[in-house]
Design a protein that fits this description.
Elements lengths: L3 H14 L4 E6 L5 H14 L1 E5 L2 H10 L13 E6 L3 H13 L7 E7 L2 E4 H9 L3 H44 L1
Antiparallel strand pairs: 1-3, 1-4, 2-3, 4-5
Helix pairs in contact: 1-3, 2-4, 4-5
C-alpha cells in the first residue's frame, strides 16, 4: 500500500512537470552538493528546474501528466530537468556543464520532448541548435531579404535618373 508521503511527492512532481515542453534525464552520481547547486542555478537561468526524485515516482508523475515514460532511462540516481522555456537553451546548459573539467560525473541520458523520447545523441543535437531568439532573427532576416531586394530594384531607375541629372548639372557648370 503506497504511503501518503509518496502520493504527496507524486503530486509535487506533477506540479513541476505540468506544462513543461521537455523533461531531461541525467545521472548525477559523484557530483558534489556545490556542483549540483551551481548546475541548478544555471538551469534555472535558462528556463528549467532540476529535481531529484525516485524513478518510480517520476514515472507515475509522467504518466499522469501525459508524457511518455522513457523506461530505458529510469535506472540509477537520476536528476529530472523540467523545461518551461527554450529546450535548446537548457540542453546547452546541461551539455556545457558536463563538458567542464571536474563535472564528468554528470551523465546525460536522454529525455522527453513533447511526446517523443530522445536518446542522448538527439538531446546533444538539440543542445547544438541556436537559441530561440537567434532562430527567430534568422527567419525574419530570410523573410525580409526579398523585400529588401525589391526595394533596391525599384529604387534603381530613380537613382540612375538623379545621377544622370547630377552629371548634366556638373557639365553645365563647367561649361559656364
Amino acid at each position: 500500500m503506497p504511503s501518503q508521503a509518496n502520493y504527496q511527492k507524486v503530486e509535487m512532481l506533477r506540479e513541476k512537470i505540468r506544462g513543461a515542453q521537455a523533461v531531461f534525464v541525467c545521472e548525477y552520481r559523484g557530483l558534489t552538493v556545490e556542483k549540483i547547486t551551481k548546475l541548478r542555478a544555471q538551469i534555472r537561468g535558462a528556463g528549467g528546474e532540476m529535481t531529484v526524485a525516485k524513478n518510480t515516482l517520476m514515472s507515475i508523475a509522467l504518466k499522469e501528466e501525459g508524457f511518455p515514460v522513457p523506461e530505458g532511462l529510469m535506472s540509477g540516481p537520476n536528476g529530472f530537468t523540467a523545461v518551461h522555456g527554450d529546450p535548446a537553451a537548457v540542453a546547452k546548459v546541461l551539455k556545457d556543464f558536463a563538458k567542464e573539467k571536474g563535472n564528468e560525473a554528470l551523465i546525460i541520458k536522454g529525455g522527453i520532448l513533447g511526446d517523443k523520447i530522445l536518446d542522448v545523441k538527439q538531446l546533444l543535437a538539440l543542445a547544438d541548435l541556436p537559441s530561440r531568439e537567434v532562430l527567430l532573427a534568422q527567419v525574419v532576416g530570410t523573410m525580409a531579404a526579398p523585400i529588401r531586394g525589391l526595394v533596391t530594384v525599384l529604387s534603381g531607375p530613380a537613382r540612375g535618373l538623379v545621377t544622370c541629372l547630377s552629371q548634366i548639372k556638373d557639365q553645365k557648370e563647367k561649361a559656364a
